[in-house]
Amino acid sequence: MSSNTLGRRFRRAARPLSAFGKNTEIGTTVTGLITKIAEEPKPKFDGAPDEIELDDDGQPVTQAVITLGTSAGPRTLYVSWRMEQAIGIALEDSGAEDFEIGATLAVTYTGPDLSYPKARLFTATYTPAPTGVGGSGNR
Q1: Which superkingdom, per the lineage (predicted)?
Q2: pLDDT value of residue 137
C-alpha cells in the first residue's frame, strides 16, 4: 500500500460521522447547515477497501458528498440516487436558484425501497441561505 493510498485512507477516517448508517431507524431526520459540498469517486458496494465503482467505459462513478453542521456536530451525507431525487424535489419546492453552502438541509430516511430492498428512500426539505451567505460555487 503506497503512502498516497494511506493518506486518502486516513483522511476518509477523519471525516465527520455519516448521517445515516446501516442501522438507522425509519423516520430518522438529520438537519443542519450545509458547510461543504463535494463530488467524490463512489466506493464499490461490497468491494475491497479503496475499490471504486466504474461505469461501462471504465471511468469512476462519482457521488455527491454533503457535510452538514448539526446540533450533534458535523455529519456527512453520502448522496445516493434516491437521496438525490429527494434533495432535488426539496430544492424545487423551495424555489431556490441553486444548492448552496449556508443553506439548511433536512433529510429523513423513510424506509427501504420495496422494489429494490438494498436501496433506501428519503424525503428532504431545503431552506435557502440567508442573503449574503453561501452562494453558488462555494464548494
Answers
A1: Bacteria
A2: 46
